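Running this now, will post back.
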Amino acid sequence: MILNSYSPDYIWTAEEQRGILTELGDKSPSPQVFIENMDAKRFHSKSYLEEFSNFLFNKYKGQKFDAIVATDDPAFLFALEKRDQFGNPPIFFCGVNAYEADVKGFIPDRVYGVKEEEDVGQTLSLMLKLFPKTKKILGITDKSAAAYFKKQFDNFFVSHKGVLSEYFVSDELDKLVNKVNSEPKDTLVLDLVSHSVDRYGDDLAGPIALSKLSQEVKLPIFGTFDYQLGYGIVGGVITSGTEQGKIVGKMAYKYLSENGSGWEDSKILGSSESNYPAFDENLLKRFNIKSYQLPPDSKIINHHENFFERYSKAIVYFSIVAFLLLLVIGLLVVVLVQKRREYGKLSDSEKYFKLLLDNSTDMIFVLDVDGEILFENESMAMLFSDKNDVEAKNFLNFLENDKRSEFAELLKRVIHTEYDSIFPFRFFIGTKRGTQVVFEGKAKKIPGYKEDFILLTVSDITERERVHSALREREEEYRLLFNSINDIVLVLDSKYSVISANDELFRLFKYKRDEFYNKQIIDFVYFEDKEYAKSLIERVQNENIKRLSFEIRAVDADGNVKTLDVKTTSIIKDSKRLIFVVCRDITEKKRADEAFIQKQRELNILLDSLPGYINYKNKDGIYVFVNNNFCNLLEMDRKKIIGHTDYEIYSEEDAEKNLELDRSAIKLGMAHFQEEVLRKLNGDILNVLTQKVPIFDEKRNLQGLISLSYDVTELKVAHELVKESAQKYLELISLLKDVVFEMDYSGRFSFISDRIFDYTNIQPKEFLNKFFADFSSPAEKEKLTLLFMSILRGEKKSCVFEITIKNYKEEYIKFEITIVAKYEGNVFKGAMGTLRKI
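Update: finished.
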């Protein structure tokens, strides 16, 4: 019976059970196996254990087991206590952390197994070896495992006082993430955690917590359990549940097959049998750890075979075949030379062989130790045009003067070495046509009848060298162009992983190359735009779109969000789809555009809030902007005014009058006031005071004309009445201690009493035609502007508040202001009020 301490969905238990069944299941005869799970992580009360014992007793009543295999401490203790009810079988165990404590109080009769002892010290030593510049090691664990690992962790740093250490305990994944991310870059993390909960309180068992942790942090993480591999740890000296299971499975099967003979004494193995160094190659590459830095016999997962590893057998096979072919050619050449010297003519078989050599694209020579050409095929004769001349020459004569002695030494080394040795070489030859040809070849000693010769096989690589040189130049030009582009350029594969990027990407986004390559491009998209990015990818795939333009936000290495204008082009190369992506950073442009739109919106609100009649015409006399009051004056919709001229709105006579006034203002070339008579469409006459402002560019070319008109019809009537009462009004307010003021329909001071001079030493005339905001503190300007806007719109007809006004020394004096607005209907006509010094 296999008795598991925990639930089978607990990965450590699953690995132990897999290891046990591997050793028991593939044997013949195979024992009958029963499996029971105590689930002691969730249920461990005495009443539960007693009920579980009764359950097993009733279930297997009358059944006698030949052995019990217990995984981990709870099952081991249970087996020691209850073995009698199962026929007192031998007990095998694995994954037991506290063996000595567990067997205390029991007679360890016929008890065999392997202890679980995570070697934290070896893992910490390995971490410092791989990262020698480490300043601190952070150990993280949950509360359930904290006490078990702390002693080993602290003992290690007794002899490593040059490295800071911290032991952080938490059951909450978010706290672990925040703690790791708060550490400096020269910190390593040792993950001893076996169980955590996320921010919602859900359990994250096994490698789930580690996987989520590794996705949130950038520091290297090491571990001590094999189930952590592939889920975010670089590696470590790990304890393998599968290996523990295999060891105890072998012991149990051997015991059963030997009927217990020779097993009278208990056999307890240490964890060294199941501990070994193991690493994840993906993370080794990420943190630039080389294979030679790893301990011997390290286990590597996610290993990517290189070309030679993948095709090693084929390379060896073809190398052997090539060597054999070369050997055959050498032997045939020797035979040919001997026959030529001995008989002076070729036999029929020699003719066929020579035909083979002459049709070879490579040049083949047989030389003596002095370089004399004893044999050559037609390829050499064709190159130098005169075969007889070739045969009469020494091979060294073809070489440049400075290369002859070097090649002569090579011939001597070849003739004095073993027959199987091959010497590669490379040289230049000047032909009779004056060209220089690049060759590479191999030299090999071959035996002769009386003396040894040298076989040369030579290939003309001139064209290949030219092509390679041209390719290198083109690649360099492409690389310079690629990295000189001011925009970001990316190359993606069909799975939208980054396979190439220019320098602008790493300059602008501050990522390291190993952080970007072979990653999904969507990983760097701002989280609010990820769904949009996925929809674009689906659209490209479903509709087979070749080109696409869009805007999207991405996140740089510092977490800053950037807006990109993106253009993509898809091509097919070597039957594979590639996507070229060009990105331009438009973050500042977007901000400027949004700011401009906001300012335009605020301007429109401001202009619509003003009491006057405002319009703006371009240089062609077409209305570009009108405020609400102007539309109400004409009793027309804004859309029927904007885009039209005066001739399309007024009668021809009124349109000519308006244009004549416009021309006068433009001719004057500056802002000025003039009285005008406006005729409504219903015939009513209005007297208005109009300020016309011509707009010019930097070259004094007219761009447009702004008109701001105020209805002064009633003012003209009331002017005389006001004139009569003004003197009495001034005499009255001079008696007051408070400052009395009046504001016109634009919100400017039209009057302020002399009392203001007593407080500010500023003449009253300095206040006229100016706003309160012109004399208030900078912190109050926006608040005052909004307040007076609400008064102008009729939202507040009277109010009392505090304000500061600067004096002649630029010091601010606090006043209490009382203001009462005047309206005609809903139209603001001005205001009056008092200032009382506080």
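The two ends are 94 Å apart (CA to CA). More later if anyone needs it.
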